[in-house]
Amino acid sequence: MAEPILSVRRLCTWFHQDEGIVRAVDGASFDLEPGHTLGIVGESGCGKSVTARSILRIVERPGRVESGEILLRRPDGSVVDLVKLDGQGREMREVRGGEIGYVFQEPMSSLSSFHTIGNQLIEAIRLHSDMSKKAARDRAVELLTLVGIPRPAQRVDSYSFELSGGLRQRVMIALALAAEPRILIADEPTTALDVTTQAQILDLLRKLQAEQGLAVILITHDMGVIAEMADDVVVMYLGRDVEQGPVETIFHDPAHPYTRSLLQSIPSVLAEPRSRLRTIEGSIPHPYARPAGCPFHPRCADAIAGRCDRSLPEPTHLGARHAVSCFLYGGSGVPALPAGLLERAE
Amino acid sequence: MTAEPQTILEVEGLRKWFPISRGLLRRVVGHVRAVDDVTFSIKHGETLSLVGESGCGKTTTSRCILRALTPTDGAIRFRTETGEQVDVAKLPKAGLRPLRRQMQMIFQDPFSSLNPRMTITDIIAEPLLVNGVRDLETRRRRVRELLDLVQLPAAYMNRFPHAFSGGQRQRIGIARALALNPALIVADEPVSALDVSVQAQVVNLLLDLQDRLGLSYLFVAHDLSVVKHVSDRVAVMYVGKIVELAPTADLFTRPRHPYTEALLSAVPVPDPRRRTGRIVPLGEVADPANPPSGCHFHPRCRYAVERCRVEIPALRPMADDHLARCHLAEELNLAGVQEGHPPATT
User: Fold this and answer.
1) Are strands B27-43 and B7-22 parallel, antiparallel or unpaired?
2) Considering the domain boundaries, does residue A306 fall inside one?
3) Within this chain, do residues A12 and A155 fall inside the same structural domain, yes or no?
4) Over the stretch A30-57, which tens digit does the pLDDT of each residue have?
5) Are B275 and A227 inside 8 Å of each other by CB?
6) In chain A, whose CA is at the least distance from the CA of B337?
7) Which residue of A has its CA nearest to B230?
8) Mean pLDDT in chain A?
9) Within a domain: residue A223?
10) Which residues of chain B have pLDDT under 70?
11) Which of B181, B214, B237 is the last residue in one of the domains?
């Protein structure tokens, strides 16, 4: 196992609101290996996007990274903890967009409609290098070619609103690659796109990763996209990583009751026509009504009374790279704080 | 022996063109052919799905059927409770009201389709009130029945929409649609805004309600996996036209149109062992204001021949209820998806 390029350890990102504290990310840990694609999957409110924003240190107020470590390993072997950096500071600004590129879901709102895509690319290139304007423009055309935009020499002067959703997402990827990052974070990069466009963008991401040796964090709610793209998978539920392992293990030998039920409830093109789906009881709890103990226990068919509702399971290793946080597999737990205590302590 | 079920809806040669006007005098310079010669029918108790990518005209078709839009041309024959056929396309506005009771709509976004200032009772009872059910107690009784039907506790009757999750809101929307005992439900992307675990519950609910109440569904969706779970027959649309229409199993296993083949292969399958070669159509969806000559799909089609560039193909019968709009439908041996349950459900 290669040394991880990025390690997230017991990350907690909370939102302090008048009604109480929303623990969007509450103790998530995972490693990203160089050249690998790590898929983070989960339903709304599981904290997958906030995790990405925490790594980039762009969590918006009233949210903040409460505790934990985000360790970025540099090629020279040094390690920097991004949590300790000032989110707006120079060093973090060089990491963000420099060492770590990012692509978000909304290609419409992530691009400026007042500047040509060429100028936006040139700005991004020159921010992280001392290239001349002329050289940066050539590099911009090169980047547009790289991401498969037809007629890049002309398109470099167009505005984002003149492009289709698929092309805009390609421009976003070109922007993310402008400073030759080693890590790319893609948060739901294809969710707003049609299925044939999605296929094109996924193929592009795969091609770029192979060519540039990128490490990718791919965040999505779509198990199909994960199955196709990821080497390793982290399954999140209510701010915690409930299970993680190689993609093959997660899909063919899942351990956590949530992972198993999630996989069974996905509709599939391979299913019998008009067949009912397996369901998970109940729905995702409201962020202010977080269950005590294991966050999944109220919806879990295998919950152990007196244990799962009392304490929080710690990760148990089932294989070298397969870990699950569930009492069904033994393992230790930390007693859960009575609901509300933390909020009062604040 | 039961008699062949009657058709509840026959759509024939439906067209909806939106004018494009330019200049000071707003002269009409062209048309967006959102729906261009669409023909299909739905039998009692059947689900027909309309699938396709953004801009293919599936939503415009469904809105014409409900006369939320007035069609440019064509007939929409609806069989009423009394058994007579009425052409919805030609009816004056005043004549529509008794029909609207019999065809209802379920919307995509459960967050914007419910009035935040009305209680659940008022929302569900509004169609009753509009249709002359004056007695409050009768309305409340019916609301209780409907909540029971969509599996929501009657205790929620006096709450406001904000207190409900996305899945619960969608159930409220379904209850409202069922209030007047409609025969036909038009559901426009009813589960695409929901999380996987909740989506499965709503898909099952729609299937159960159909069995219990004998409803007919026109199901508009872009997600082929969900479509596989709910449909008896599927119509694939591309740039305003139906390119293929067939029974569900047939369409998925033996597609006869290259666009259907490409769509099916673009769907990510939730199984890492099935990372097979995809057939990604080239380029982008054609512009319905300026569609390509001949077959609208030819610029993206990998099988296209000279004839496809010049001659518009007709929607022709292949075998058992299977229609396809392709010159080469008989010769091509297109790939579908393999039948069988996804391994994840073992």
Assistant:
1) antiparallel
2) yes
3) yes
4) 999 999 999 999 988 899 999 999 999 9
5) yes
6) A270
7) A274
8) 89
9) yes
10) 1-4, 276-277, 338-346
11) B181
